[in-house]
What does this fold into?
Amino acid sequence: MKTDQPIIPSPPRAGFFERFASAVTHATGSTPAFIIAVTLVLAWALTGPVFNFSEEWQLVINTGTTIITFLMVFIIQKSQNKDSLAIQLKLNELVAAHKHASNRLVNVENMTEDELKVIKKYYAYLSQYSKQEESLQQSHSIDEAAAAHNFKKHLEQDLENC
It folds into this structure.
C-alpha cells in the first residue's frame, strides 16, 4: 500500500548511560532520596560515641561522600548537557520561527565569548532604542536596530555636509 505521507522514522532509543543518568538524576533529586541521605548522616553521627569518634569512623563518612559526589558530578553533568541542548534547540526554533528575530542568534551557543559580547552591546543599544518607542508592544531585532543606527548615522553625516 502506497501513501503520499512521508514515513517518519522513530527516534533512536536513548543509550544505556543516558537512561541510567536520567533515572539517577530523577531519583536523587527526590524527597525520599533526601530523607535517606539525612537518615544515613544521622545514623553515622549517632554511632560516633560507639566508635569513640575515631579516625576510621570519620573516614567512613568522608570516603562515602567523596565517592558519591565524584560519581554524581558526571551523572548530573550528563543530564545538564541534555537539558541544555534541548533548551537551545527550543530557543533556536523560536528565533527561527519569529519573523522579526535575528537568525544570527540561532547558533549563538557556538559563538566565542568576544562575539557574545558584541551581541550583548547590540542588545544594550536595542534596549535604549526601545525605550524611545511609545508602544511597549513594539518589537525590534538586532538587524533592525543596526539598520536604524546606520540610518541615523547617515542622516547626521548628511546634516554635517549641508
User: Anything to note?
Assistant: The two ends are 75 Å apart (CA to CA). The chain has five helices and no strands.
